[in-house]
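Q: Could you fold this chain for me?
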Amino acid sequence: MASIEGAGSSSLPAFPKGNAFRRRARRELGVGYMFTLPSVLLLFLFTLGPALYSLYLSFFSWSLLNHMHFVGWQNFVQLFQMPLFWISVRNSVVFALVVVPTQTVVALLLAAILNQNLPARGFFRLAFFFPAVSSSAVISIIFMWIYNKFGLLNGFLSVFGIVGPDWLGNPSFALSSIMLLNIWTTSGYFMVVFLAGLQAIPAEMYEAAAIDGAGRWRSFSRITVPLLSPSTFFIVVMGIVGTLQMFDQSFIMSQGTGGPLNSTTTIVLLIYQFIFSYGQVGYGAAATVLLFLLILLATLATNWWFKRKLDYL
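A: Sure. Below is the predicted structure, expressed as structure tokens.
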């Protein structure tokens, strides 16, 4: 018995024990920290650092040309009393509530169609994805020509006897026009995310559903949509973050004014105006902090809803 135990113990690998094990663990931990240190430094330098500095500036009055003066919560109090701030919040929230569900549904439908064995499927995938990798500034300028009172869109409507408005000059249509532009540019990117999710669903599940007599719509609603919930969650969260931070399209298409009548003024555009147009860095920093809290609450609410409604996350 002793010989068997001795033979078995001699064949086992030797592991460090006691102090030697702790020294090896500390050495491996140090190597891990060394590999992650560059990424952590870049994260702090370009993300956490500016965020903390914005929080610091939100408690000061500073116009970039004079000395900073500590004012405490005064910037936040005055910001809440500004009608323009609430207009920007309303525009950003309405923009997110319209764009996020629409681009998600459009992306899902495009992915479901282009996941079929269609002729020229690769061409259509590229065509729908191309706006997502194009310059947002260039696309915004192109759509300014399309939305012009004498532009392509109104020229098309005139064929049917419809007199189109000045899409970007009318407060009733300006924000909606930017919404349409944003949906067109982002649906292709999210379509690719849905395509990846669709291709990960086993074909056997659809075959089993067909044997049970399920049609295409029932298979889509009972198999495809539930199993795409992780992709949907990612798309919704990224859409919320992107729409609440929308700046470039509003800035370019309103020429930096947020007009007409502040109908396209978003929170980020207002932050830009506070700092670079009005020289009120404290107000801009306070608005940045409030925007962060809005995005955080929206993301947490989305996470709670998905975990409550779906069993796949």
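A (continued): The CA atoms of residues 62 and 100 lie 36 Å apart.
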